[in-house]
């Protein structure tokens, strides 16, 4: 089954009551064409820079494959920073969550052709709960850099599963995964399983308790996606951990994405994922 709550990005794009209701009901909305082709190509130039590549880690899926991840804590002032601070992304999240948000972290998820590993069923709050975030007033924006289709490991979701609350999570291979008995019970009880197939530039805005996973990439096409995570300002974590506590997010106009020509990554605070207690990651050496 295909995903349900879809909208088309326009220059006059605003969050409507219908969009907010869909987000609350289904746990997500899809915005087609959120990024233009020029914006996607501009972002690719940034993330292919050596300053990103040297922070690549591999996360095993327990079946001999691994996905690659580059994670940073603060937006910074390059094009990816402008993207995460833009009104069409950060501003949309603030409206969907009903209050001021700050940038919790961003990451580039890369599934190389043929060898890109799966991600087990989980909730993002399954990780973030352990970081001292007391409420699930958090969300992620999954932005397709490449086409994300079934054959190269697109996201899969259990629609409306965010209504089931937080599920216990344990370490599965190198990842934190949800209790599969509970996941199966949810799957079997009218929480539709959907494939979220996206074209380059499309985005999925989803609640932190929405159950999701992705299969391995068996195709000859890579699958890159940029994920921006946000926390409500009044949900400041109560413990120190590897992601930021509340930090004022200075939003920018959408036009700042293409206007930004800087490749300076100063202040992004790339993560050393071997220190992350919610996953097991190993450094991938740059070519």
Rounded to an integer in angstroms, the radius of gyration calculated over CA atoms is 17 Å
Largest sheet: 9 strands, mixed
Hey, roughly how much beta strand do the residues contain?
Answer: 25-35%
In whole angstroms, the N-to-C terminal distance is: 39 Å
- The appropriate CATH architecture is Sandwich
Class by alpha and beta content:
alpha+beta
Order of helices and strands: EHEHHEEHHEEHEEEEHEEEEHE
CATH fold label: Jelly Rolls
In what order do the strands lie side by side in the largest sheet? 1-2-12-7-14-5-4-3-15
Morphology? globular
InterPro entries: Phytyl_CoA_dOase-like
Cofactor: Fe cation
What is this entry, summarized?
With 287 residues, the protein is an alpha+beta fold. Helix content is 21%, strand content 27%.
What can you see in these coordinates?
- It is a single chain.
- The chain is of the alpha+beta class.
- The chain has one domain (29-282): q2cbj1_9rhob like domain (Jelly Rolls), CATH 2.60.120.
- It is built from eight helices and 15 strands.
- The N and C termini lie far apart (39 Å).
- The model has no long low-confidence stretch (mean pLDDT 91).
Helix-strand blueprint:
Elements: E1 6-8, H1 17-26, E2 28-32, H2 37-47, H3 50-53, E3 57-60, E4 66-72, H4 79-85, H5 87-97, E5 101-111, E6 119-122, H6 124-128, E7 138-144, E8 155-158, E9 169-172, E10 175-178, H7 180-187, E11 193-196, E12 203-207, E13 212-214, E14 223-232, H8 256-259, E15 281-283
Parallel strand pairs: 1-2
Antiparallel strand pairs: 2-12, 3-4, 3-15, 4-5, 5-14, 6-13, 7-12, 7-14, 8-11, 8-13, 9-10
